[in-house]
Description:
Layout: H1 2-19, H2 25-37, H3 39-43, H4 49-55, H5 60-80, E1 85-89, E2 92-96, H6 112-126, E3 131-137, H7 145-165, E4 173-177, E5 198-204, H8 206-213
Parallel strand pairs: 3-4
Antiparallel strand pairs: 1-2, 2-5, 3-5
Helix pairs in contact: 5-6, 5-8
Amino acid sequence: MKKLIVLSLSMSLFFGCGAIQNMKKQQKGTLAGTAGGALLGAAVSKGSVWGILAGAAVGGVAGNLIGKKMDTQARELTQAVPTAEVNRVGEGINMTFDSSLAFKINSAELSSSYLQDLSAAAQVFKSYPDTNILIEGHTDDSGAAEYNYALSERRAKSVSNYFISQGISASRLTTKWFGETQPKYPNDDASREKNRRVELAIYANDAMVGEAKSGKLD
């Protein structure tokens, strides 16, 4: 309950910064649905994907320009990787890949289907060099916590290294890992697999923010 209260206060502060005022109607609906559907994950995110996206909000006219560009990128990511969950959050994008297509149990090796999804996403990312990408690795609660922490690190770095091999600049990438500590869904038989995930936050870099503030962002 304390975590949910903290989440509510954090979201209220985020919205109060002008993020909601700068979002289109469809963006507001997407964010509301995302906040409700991923309440558990957001509540325990401890400043990871959700914190990055909230902290990256610029607000005002500049934030609106950034949001419009993120609208376009989100649409392209959805078309390129239809198996992934792509949500516009504030002035950024939250992207979660289908866990069933990603890794085998206890492995950080990228599956062939996952490689196809990552390659398609990389092509979109290369079209938007003025964005940064946070890559997070997560596991379910099967096995020892220490092992899961190390496994989530290997998985996040596997994705990061693959993006680099596809031409994404390493300077754009930040990699984090959390093991089993940040479940987005209950760790039960019906949902445990969904917690074996790699999640991304895509947000404006300093160059995009500067162009937006000067009104030069296309």
